[in-house]
Amino acid sequence: MSTTATIVTIAAALWVGFSAASVFLRATWVVGPLAEYGVPRSWWPWLGVAKAAGSVGLLVGLFVPVVGVLAAVGLVLYFVGAVVTVLRARSYGHVPFPLLYLAPVVAALALGFPG
Question: Which of 18, 34, 46, 65: disulfide with 39, CB 3.0–4.6 Å?
């Protein structure tokens, strides 16, 4: 894995980890929109767990590539689902937010794990 791929993967993992922590800490800028989109409150901890697991999986993938690939694919599905949720809620102005998390995960997958 190249230095660039390693840096992008670590950055993506930290970024997604920040997102998970924001859900666990019920940051207003995260849970407010979740409520607005109609995401049940009982799902919020599980969404945080999914992001945290994906973040850890990306880091583990630096040493065990198949884990990184699986984590990245899972996170891609997660954030594509987030885009769909935002679109279904007709909050079109919020679409860029899940894309900000999706992009570095896709970059990490494209740069580093196929080897």
Answer: 34
For the stretch 36-61, what's the b/e string if a residue is b when 16 or more beta carbons lie within 10 angstroms of its beta carbon? ebebeeeebeebbebbbbbbbbbbbb
Question: What is the pTM assigned to this prediction?
Answer: 0.90
CB 58, CB 16: distance < 8 Å: yes
> Mean pLDDT per 10-residue run, the chain (115 residues)?
89 96 92 89 94 97 93 96 91 87 94 65
What was the pLDDT predicted at 63? 93
Burial of 14: CB neighbours in 10 Å, binned 0-12, 13-18, 19+:
middle
Torsion angle, alpha carbons of 73, 39, 44, 109, to 10: 10
- 3-state DSSP call for residue 95? coil
CB 2 within 8 A of CB 111: yes
Up-side HSE of residue 111: CA atoms within 13 Å toward CB? 20
